[in-house]
């Protein structure tokens, strides 16, 4: 059963999957499509037309601006911001107030299993690859490869991580997850799971 707090603001035409939870003061705008078992924390904002896969978590006060796309199993930490305006301005060059029709929103795409740490900012348009991790406070200004751990301002890859989120350990010509034992191969700065 889907649970929506009495103080949450969920648009009538937003589509929420089974077993979703939308908490106190969260706002889910029009045309949002949310998969099953998603959680939207206190005060979080999900913009018009955002799509979320199954088993996503958007923590307290995160801002997910349209047209962001979150695949299955994405984690958005507290106070994360996914931007949508490449060249933000309140006014036009002539000094007139800009309207919603004076710019074209661009989105952040987050692939399966990726995690964005607390207070990180992803500056659209960027893609965060499968199972990647963005460290808390990072500012992402370019695409993040699958399984990368990025940190800093601007964010840069500092390690590789596996599906468990734990940094991988190098073992001869492979990288190994110390938690699951899964082996990964790096070729041309791209990491992939080793064939069994």
UniProtKB/TrEMBL annotation:
Signal peptide (UniProt feature, chain positions): none
InterPro entries (UniProt xref): Hexapep (IPR001451), Trans_hexapeptide_repeat (IPR050179), Trimer_LpxA-like_sf (IPR011004)
Keywords: Transferase
Record carries keyword Amino-acid biosynthesis: no
One Gene Ontology molecular-function label: transferase activity
UniProt keyword Transferase, yes or no: yes
Domain of life: Bacteria
SUPFAM superfamilies: Trimeric LpxA-like enzymes
Protein name according to UniProt: Carbonic anhydrase or acetyltransferase, isoleucine patch superfamily
Organism: Cryobacterium psychrotolerans
């Amino acid at each position: 059963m889907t649970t929506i707090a009495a103080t949450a603001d969920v648009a009538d035409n937003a589509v929420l999957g089974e077993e979703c939870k939308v908490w106190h003061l969260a706002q889910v705008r029009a045309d949002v499509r949310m998969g099953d078992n998603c959680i939207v924390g206190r005060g979080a904002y999900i913009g018009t037309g955002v799509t979320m896969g199954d088993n996503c978590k958007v923590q307290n006060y995160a801002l997910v601006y349209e047209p962001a796309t979150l695949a299955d199993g994405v984690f958005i930490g507290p106070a994360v911001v996914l931007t949508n305006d490449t060249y933000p301005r309140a006014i036009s060059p002539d000094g007139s107030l800009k309207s919603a029709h004076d710019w074209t929103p661009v989105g952040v795409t987050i692939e399966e299993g990726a995690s964005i740490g607390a207070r990180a900012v992803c500056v659209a348009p960027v893609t965060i690859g499968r199972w990647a991790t963005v460290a808390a406070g990072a500012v992402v200004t370019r695409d993040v490869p699958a399984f990368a751990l990025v940190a800093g301002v601007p964010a840069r890859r500092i390690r590789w991580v596996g599906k468990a989120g734990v940094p991988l350990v190098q073992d001869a010509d492979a990288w190994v997850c110390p938690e699951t034992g899964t082996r990964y191969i790096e070729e041309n700065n791209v990491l992939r799971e080793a064939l069994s």
